[in-house]
Amino acid sequence: MDCLRCQSLIESFLKQSLPPSESDEFIGHVKNCPDCYGELEVYHIVNSVVTQLDSGSEDEDIDYKASLRRMLERAGTQKRRRRFARYVFMTILATLLVIIYFLVRGIVF
Ligand SMILES: [Zn+2]
Predict the structure, then answer these.
(1) Nearest 10 degrees: CA dihedral of 12, 17, 23, 27?
(2) Which terminal residue of the chain has fewer beta carbons within 10 Å of its beta carbon, N or C?
(3) What's the CA gap between 79 and 58, in Å, rounded?
(4) Per-residue pLDDT for 59 more than 70?
(5) Distance, CA 75 to ligand 1 centroid (Å)?
């Protein structure tokens, strides 16, 4: 993913509307690209402030940089969960195929 593509996806990422594969690529890029990370940080701060103003809350100072890091960590955790779920699914599928293979062989021969 290049910087132009990455920066065009920032708003979608913040709205959590990116498909998982694109979200993974996006996170991989921003973690290694200071320019895009900086851009994401600015969008995140602006979004958070607007949301805070809309809700009318006058909370104490929020650590926006920390909240962005948490958001990226959560997205990373979701990626690991998806990978684990895929692994479990493939293992079950492989087991079923082996069972079906032996059942068919047992019946045919
Ligand atoms: Zn970049």
Answers:
(1) 50
(2) C
(3) 34
(4) no
(5) 18
- Rounded to the nearest whole angstrom, what is the distance from the C-alpha of residue 2 to the centroid of ligand 1? 6
Q: Residue length, the chain?
A: 109
pLDDT digits (tens, 9 = 90+) for 61-105: 678 889 899 888 888 888 788 888 999 999 999 999 999 998 888
d(CA 22, CA 28): 10
Q: Which domain holds residue 8?
A: 3-108
* 26 CB neighbour count, 10 Å cutoff: 23
Q: Please tell me the distance from the alpha carbon of residue 3 to that of residue 25, in angstroms, as a whole number.
A: 12
Number of domains in the chain: 1
Answer yes or no: pTM beyond 0.90.
no
